[in-house]
Each structure stands twice: as C-alpha cells, then as structure tokens.
C-alpha cells in the first residue's frame, strides 16, 4: 500500500510543529500546486532538483509574485526536509534553490501637513494630553513603539531636552526632543502626578499602570480617525515620517541612521528611495516638460 506522505506531513506540521490550521493548509496547497506540475511518473521520493526548478519556473511564467513563489519553495523545502528526516530520501533536492528576490516594500510615511493636522488636538483632559505627548514624542525623536512604551520619567532630561532610549539589542542612545514635544510632555506630567502610581513609567493608564503596546497603537489609530486623516495612523508611521522629513531637510544619512538606532546604513537607505519618489512627484507636477509629457499621454 502506497504511503500518503502529504498526509504524514500534515500530521507532522499540526502535531509536532504545532503550526496553525491556516499555515498547514497553505503549505499543503503550495505542495499540491507543485505536485500538479510534475510528471505523473515522478515521485516525491525521487524528484530531482531540476524537476522542482522546472515546476517553479512554470509558476513564475504564470505570473506568481516573488512573495508567492517564496512561500511555494518554502513549503517544498520543508516537505523534502521532512522526507529526509523520515529516512525515505538521502538528500533534500530543494535545499539550494532560491526564489526570486522580493522587492522590499517602501515604508509609508505622512506628509508634514498631515502630521501637523494629527497633532492639532485641543482637548485638555488627561487622555488627550497624554496621547498628544505620545504622538509628539514619536514624531519628534523617531522612537520605536517598544522604546516609547518602556520610557520612565527619569529618562527625560528636561533642561537639555534629551531622552535616553533603550533600543534593539539593549543598545542605549540619547536623542534630542523638540520644543513642542517637551511642552506636550510637561502638560501631561501635570495630570500624571494626580494619578496614583507607584512606579516611574512616563505614560500610564487612568489606573496607574504602564501603557501597553496595543493601547498605544489603538489610541493612535483612534486619533487618526478623529482627525479625519485618509490613512491609518500607527507608531511606525510617525517614525517613518520623522526619518523621511529629517532626510529631506538634512540629506544626512549617517545622522538619521544614528537617530533611528539602525545598526546598518542599508536599513536607513530605504528612506532615500522614498525621498527620491517625493522629488520625482514634485518634478512631475512642476516641470513644464514633465507636465507636457503627461498631457500627451492622456491625449
């Protein structure tokens, strides 16, 4: 009786790897997609690297995106690794295959007018003052969500307008804070002192507990809707906006890298693509020849 290795693989993913039903279903879907492209006489126990590569090429020609091809290849590699583990094949034929390189998505930022509109919060209740201080600080210093949530009052040096941040890998950095952000934090702290709290957390709830990541995300999203912005607002969008606007104004990639706490310059360089896109948009809208070309195209 022929062994159904797909079924065994499904049990392995569910029981031993404890992957979600959704993930297991996706893996099997991808495996079946490749299986249909193999010759009827080809068994997974004897499939060659060239046969898998040929199937992947066919999927590429059918228009599958690099992201989908990467998922397909990942499923094939893991299935072959499973067969190797079971001792029914001697080598993994897919181990050295690679999917087409995926384009790195550009970070989405807000333009300066949208950021200003977001920060125009008039309320003087504690929650409004706290949320305004949070958003001002995100945009002022380009903090990550985890960095901001972990801040204590003692991390702020008010006279020097600096904040001490513990970034990825436990790396500490000292960042400047803008006047608007310092003013917003001052106003929030006046309210915070009235809330019973036994610790030093900078941003807290009405009950005096440190504000959680999800709560910060939810509050930013809420303010984005209340300010009628046509985009979803989240902490990283303010960080992206900080990076993009700093780079547009200063063109100092190294300085922006230091401020963001990026270990590699290549991570910061993605904002140069964004900056170029902005310049290209301005050029298209302003240059007479670009405007003419656009008009010709529409005719």
Could you characterize the architecture of this molecule?
- With 299 residues, the chain is mainly alpha-helical.
- The protein folds into two domains: 5-86, DNA polymerase, domain 1 (Orthogonal Bundle); 112-294, Intergrase catalytic core (hpI Integrase, Chain A, Orthogonal Bundle), CATH 1.10.443.
- It contains 13 helices and three strands.
- Strands 1-2-3 form a three-stranded antiparallel beta sheet, with no helix packed on it.
- Helix 12 crosses helix 13.
Brief digest:
The chain has 13 helices and three strands; from the N terminus they run H-H-H-H-H-H-H-E-E-E-H-H-H-H-H-H. It is mainly α. It folds into two domains: 5-86, Orthogonal Bundle (DNA polymerase, domain 1); 112-294, Intergrase catalytic core (hpI Integrase, Chain A), CATH 1.10.443.10.
Keywords:
299 residues; mainly alpha; DNA polymerase, domain 1; hpI Integrase, Chain A; 2 domains; 3-stranded antiparallel β-sheet; 13 helices; 3 strands; 4% strand; elongated; DNA recombination; DNA-binding
């Amino acid at each position: 009786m022929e062994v159904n290795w797909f079924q065994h693989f499904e049990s392995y993913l569910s029981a031993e790897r404890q992957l979600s039903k959704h993930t297991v279903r996706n893996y099997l879907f991808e495996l079946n997609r490749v299986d249909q492209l193999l010759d009827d006489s080809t068994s997974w126990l004897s499939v060659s690297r060239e046969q898998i590569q040929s199937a992947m090429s066919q999927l590429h020609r059918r228009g599958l995106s690099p992201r989908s091809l990467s998922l397909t290849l990942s499923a094939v590699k893991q299935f072959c690794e499973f067969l190797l583990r079971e001792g029914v094949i001697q080598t993994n034929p897919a181990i050295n295959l690679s999917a087409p390189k995926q384009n790195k998505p550009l970070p989405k930022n807000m333009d300066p007018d949208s950021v200003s509109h977001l920060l125009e919060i008039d309320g003087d209740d504690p929650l409004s003052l706290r949320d305004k201080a949070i958003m001002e600080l995100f945009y002022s210093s380009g903090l990550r969500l985890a960095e901001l949530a972990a801040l204590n009052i003692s991390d702020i040096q008010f006279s020097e307008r600096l904040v001490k941040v513990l970034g990825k890998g436990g790396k500490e950095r000292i960042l400047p804070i803008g006047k608007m952000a310092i003013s917003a934090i001052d106003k929030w702290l006046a309210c915070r002192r009235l809330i019973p709290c036994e610790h030093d957390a900078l941003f807290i709830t009405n009950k005096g507990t440190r504000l959680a990541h999800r709560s910060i995300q939810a509050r930013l999203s809420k303010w984005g809707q209340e300010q009628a912005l046509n985009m979803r607002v989240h902490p990283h969008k303010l960080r992206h906006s900080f990076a993009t606007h700093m780079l547009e104004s200063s063109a100092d990639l190294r300085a922006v890298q230091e401020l963001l706490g990026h270990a590699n310059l290549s991570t910061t360089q993605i904002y140069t693509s964004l900056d170029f896109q902005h310049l290209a948009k301005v050029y298209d809208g302003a240059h007479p020849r670009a405007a003419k070309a656009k008009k010709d195209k529409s005719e």
